[in-house]
Design brief:
elongated, mainly alpha, about 85% helix
């Protein structure tokens, strides 16, 4: 295969991908993570001051969502950083699930 054939094949493979759209989704996802975490912290703080009780069910849901995103990224990319983030978010998610179950059971 000569150089022109390789370039032509590479260009034809990339035509189905809309790179600006992919980049916009990536930026939007990171902004959503940040806003979601900030809002969750605000809601938890208000609930603690007003109700003297924080339901960890919402924390569990958000952390599981982010865990799933990093798990998917790790499965596709196989990068060490993604694995570390997957483990961290998975641990947070499992912790919030345990606390939420304890809250539902009346232990906490």
């Amino acid at each position: 295969m000569n150089r022109e054939e390789v370039l032509s094949k590479a260009q034809s493979e990339g035509r189905e991908k809309d790179l600006p759209d992919i980049e916009a989704q990536r930026s939007g996802a990171w902004l959503a993570y940040i806003i979601g975490v900030i809002l969750l912290i605000a809601v938890d703080t208000v609930n603690d001051f007003v109700l003297h009780y924080v339901n960890r069910g919402a924390d569990f849901a958000l952390f599981t969502m982010v865990f799933t995103i990093f798990l998917t990224k790790y499965i596709r990319l196989r990068k060490r950083h993604e694995l570390i983030m997957t483990i961290l978010w998975g641990t947070l998610s499992a912790s919030m699930l345990a606390v939420w179950i304890l809250q539902l059971a009346g232990v906490i």
